[in-house]
Design brief:
By secondary structure, this protein is α+β, with helices and mostly antiparallel strands. It is built from four helices and twelve strands, in the order E-H-E-H-E-E-E-E-E-H-E-H-E-E-E-E. This is Metal-dependent hydrolase, endonuclease/exonuclease/phosphatase family.
Length: about 250
């Protein structure tokens, strides 16, 4: 039994043509039919929250969505979000900002897939080396706060590109599995900024170069193995409303 995850920095919904279009972002996500996905750089400033409607539709009629608003203005906000085909519970937004640098946060939630309890954290880390190192230490603490029996996942834009990779090294013990895809810049990716970390085996991972028309990052999609002994009753059928996820 696998769970399909996806993370993508959508660059505010603005592609290389400088056109805002979350419809094409939605269409690309729908093509891969993730069960849970995280999006970074969601920007509703000057457009209103209704601009997220195309993305909300992906989570079915219930719209299982959790948001981390790192910049809030009178005409909208900026941040990142989690979308799920199952209800998200125990939602918490952790401020991992450092000094006067751009505000950053880690979005924590929990969902259940049949008998499997999943603890997930979506992130968008900073650009400074020391900033990311301190943020990584905080992420380890957040991951450790999950229940011992949980399947744990952390995904997002980690901005971790230097050879010594402080974030990757910090998370290696807590998350033995990770993706290894080059995602930035989208036109000719050389950096592995966007990743999915998991305590469950990653059985397949890939990206989609069609995303070049939508953002400066490529997405990361991964199937992870969540099968456990004695879990024959696992039920992953879609909730009422269905959305565009796998049935």
């Amino acid at each position: 039994m696998t769970l399909r995850l996806m993370t993508w920095n959508v660059h505010g919904g603005i592609g290389p043509d400088r056109r805002f279009d979350l419809g094409r972002v939605r269409d690309l996500i729908a093509r891969h039919r993730p069960d849970v996905f995280a999006l970074q750089e969601l920007d509703t400033r000057g457009r209103g929250p209704e601009c997220l409607t195309p993305l909300r539709a992906l989570a079915g009629e219930e719209g299982y969505l959790a948001q981390a608003r790192t910049i809030v203005t009178p005409d909208g906000d900026y941040g990142h979000a989690l979308f799920s085909r199952w209800p998200l519970t125990d939602i918490a937004v952790h401020d991992v900002s450092q000094g006067r640098r751009e505000p950053r946060s880690a979005l924590e939630a929990r969902f259940a897939v049949g008998d499997v309890s999943c603890h997930i954290v979506a992130v968008h880390l900073g650009l400074g080396i020391g900033e990311r190192w301190r943020q990584a230490r905080r992420l380890v603490e957040i991951a450790a706060a999950g229940r011992p029996a949980d399947l744990r996942v952390m995904m997002g834009d980690f901005n971790d590109w230097f050879p010594w990779r402080p974030v990757r090294r910090s998370l290696a013990h807590a998350f033995p599995e990770r993706t290894r895809l080059r995602t930035f810049p989208a036109r000719r990716p050389i950096l592995r900024l966007d990743r999915i970390y998991s305590t469950a085996p990653v059985v397949a991972s890939w990206t989609d170069t069609a995303a070049r028309a939508c953002s400066d990052h490529l997405p990361v999609i991964a199937d992870i193995d969540i099968a456990t002994p004695g879990n024959a009753a696992l039920n992953v059928s879609a909730p009422a409303g269905g959305g565009l996820f796998r049935a």
